[in-house]
Amino acid sequence: MNQWRKRDPIKDYFPLPNEVFQLGLVPGELAVYAYLLYCEDRQTYQCWPSFKTIGRAVGMCVNTVQKYVSMLVRKGLIRAENTSVITRDGQKRNGNLRYTILPIQAAIERYEHLRLEELELETARLRHQQRQNQLPA
């Protein structure tokens, strides 16, 4: 008989908000966002994995991870801040980015606002096109 270890619902899982699927994320954005949620400190909502570490975890190269991090920042899902470290010989160096996972509701509101603007522009474009088609030749 096969014995399966019982999984702890707190330690063995991480929360992924249901609303994330309403934001039109591409698979790469979703993968990077999920990994950052996996890494986050649930009291501070922060984590600081390197691009290389994220890439290894989700199967992407560093440049691709950088691209998706930038997209997540623009969409208001995360904030990324530069950090610095002091080496043993006293030199100041750039550290990993510190990511803060932002409240999902703000990202949803931003996404809905942008979608509404896109729809308004498309409606205006269609009205203009209709008027052009009605003009006598």
Task: Walk me through this protein's architecture.
By secondary structure, this protein is mostly helical. The protein has four helices and five strands, in the order αβααββββα. A hairpin with a 5-residue loop joins strand 3 (84-86) and strand 4. The longest helix has 31 residues, at 104-134. The radius of gyration is 21 Å and the shape is elongated. The model has no long low-confidence stretch (mean pLDDT 90).
* Record field, number of beta strands: 5
Largest sheet: 3 strands, antiparallel
Radius of gyration based on Cα positions:
21 Å
| Fraction in beta strands | 5-15%
Spans of at least 5 consecutive residues with low confidence: none
Helical segment tally? 4
Structural class estimated from helices and strands = mainly alpha
Helical fraction equals 40-55%
How confident is the prediction overall: mean pLDDT?
Answer: 90
Physical arrangement of strands within the biggest beta sheet: 1-5-2
Amino-to-carboxy terminus distance:
83 Å
Order of helices and strands: HEHHEEEEH
Based on CA inertia axes, which overall geometry fits?
elongated
Break the fold down into its secondary structure elements and pairings.
Elements: H1 27-39, E1 46-47, H2 51-58, H3 62-74, E2 78-81, E3 84-86, E4 92-94, E5 98-101, H4 104-134
Antiparallel strand pairs: 1-5, 2-5, 3-4
